[in-house]
Amino acid sequence: MLATTLESYLDDRILQLSKEVRQEMLTQIGNPDSYLRDKLIYQSFVKMIFSDQLNSEELLELLEKVVQEDYLFYRIGESGTDSVFTRSFSALVIAAVIEYDLKKRIANPDIIFYTTNKVLQYMLEEKDIRGFIHENGWAHAIAHGADAVDALAKHPLLKKEDISRILHVVQHALFRQVDYLDEEEDRLAIILISLIKHQHAEQEIRVWIEDMTGMVETQLDENKGSIDAYHVKRTVKSFLKSFYIMLSAKDIGEQVTCDVFEALKKWMYLR
């Protein structure tokens, strides 16, 4: 029934969704069926949000719900279970609401601060790093969480002190001793682009990159032959490559672009 209704909505055969259907969408937000979860429920949330079909109160109520324990933090700490879909797709809805708010400016500073705290906490606590799952489609919790962080990184109400917290979250994701398979590093790098463009954070990022690459080299020196230390370096190097290309393509951050190039040159044995 829900699938049929949402198919009609996305095909413009139904113009708006009832409160009952919207509640059912929330209930089913993490359904293991990728078609229902990704193609119907998530896409319907996006259409509903960006078509101005929710008033300010309804939009903020949606945001308040999806950052809570039953959604963004649903069974947080689990890995390899279907609970990841609820957390991951809640993060995508958060990203959509914040992206919408960048233009509409409905949320007040307290709401942005609260949402930032929740999203950053989620990124530190999420344990399931799977990307695409053969039978169930995209989980992609790290990438979807990064999308929510990126939306917040663009927001004019982001607090200055949250820049360092965001960088800490990105570093945490990079230092998890895993080889990401589904371009998670790219989604993390986009966050830094947004911090430079919207928060003028180039100098903070320069210091952060110097500190982070120094930590990687220290780990390698102190754990010679360690495959875990090597994997961290490999992940950070992949991230820096993505970041460098994005900086160059957008022609921003001249100083940090040089810093990233020097780090990559050293790690790619081009000295």
**Number of β-strand runs:** 2
Could you give a short account of the major beta sheet?
A: 2 strands, antiparallel
Q: What's the helix count?
A: 12
In total, the number of domains comes to 2
Helix content bin = 55-70%
Distance between the termini: 62 Å
- Measured on Cα atoms, how large is the radius of gyration? 20 Å
Coarse shape: globular
Q: Can you list the strand order of the major beta sheet?
A: 1-2
- State which percent range the strand residues make up: under 5%
Task: Detail the poorly predicted runs.
Answer: none
Secondary-structure element pattern, one letter each = HHHHHHEEHHHHHH
The secondary structure category is: mainly alpha
Mean pLDDT rating: 96
Organism: Sporosarcina psychrophila (Bacillus psychrophilus)
InterPro entries: DUF2785
Protein name: DUF2785 domain-containing protein
Notes on the protein architecture:
With 271 residues, the protein is mainly α. The protein folds into two domains: 1-159; 164-271. It contains twelve helices and two strands, in the order H-H-H-H-H-H-E-E-H-H-H-H-H-H. The protein has helices spanning 2-10, 19-27, 34-50, 56-66, 83-104, 109-125, 141-154, 162-174, 184-199, 202-222, 227-250, 254-267; strands spanning 132-133, 137-138. The chain has a two-stranded antiparallel sheet with strand order 1-2. Strand 1 and strand 2 (137-138) form a beta hairpin. Helix 10 runs antiparallel to helix 11. The longest helix is centred in the last third of the chain and has 24 residues, at 227-250. The termini are far apart. 39% of the residues are buried. The mean pLDDT is 96.
